[in-house]
Design goal:
This protein is an alpha+beta fold. The protein has helices at about 5-20, 65-75, 80-105; strands at about 25-30, 30-35, 40, 45-50, 55-60, 110, 115-120, 120-125, 130-135, 140-150. The radius of gyration is 15 Å and the shape is globular.
């Protein structure tokens, strides 16, 4: 499958998966392009992708946003080590469901176990990036960031 078809499949699959996993109102904003670097927020789950598309998927935002998601999903706010564990598990749920979604759309990817990343850090090493902001209530957000490592031209 060409990158021209793989990118929207993974991006749309990521959005679909988040809405499926998170059983509460979540507003998806319009995707935008990222340049070749991105400054990570406070907390995130990083998933590496190989196969028909090579890159990374990052789910990130503030600790307060992840804590709220945990509260909405499990009935209590997530804090400390529980927050880190929850963030990794959320990444794992998204990665697994994404792999299933893309396989149903004639695409093959392999995913890694999510890595929890914290603190602000620069994300580099990708050729093309897409940011999808997700709003939870009015003051909390998560971001889905798809970073593509192009080994071939988009056709």
């Amino acid at each position: 499958m060409s990158l021209y078809h793989s990118i929207p499949t993974v991006l749309n699959g990521s959005i679909h998966t988040v809405h499926r996993i998170m059983p509460f109102e979540l507003t998806t904003e319009q995707p935008s392009l990222l340049n070749e670097t991105h400054l990570n927020d406070e907390l995130g789950a990083l998933i590496r992708i190989t196969g028909d598309l090579t890159g990374k998927l990052l789910i990130e935002r503030s600790e307060a946003s992840f804590s709220l998601v945990g509260e909405k999903m499990y009935g209590h706010p997530q804090e400390g080590e529980l927050l880190s564990s929850f963030t990794e598990e959320l990444g794992n749920m998204i990665a697994g469901n994404l792999a299933t979604f893309v396989s149903e759309h004639d695409m093959t990817i392999d995913i890694t176990t999510p890595s929890v990343i914290g603190g602000q850090r620069t994300m580099e090493g990708f050729n093309r990036g897409f940011l999808v902001p997700l709003s939870i209530e009015q003051e909390y957000q998560l971001s889905l960031i798809l970073m593509i490592e192009e080994k071939q031209k988009i056709t």
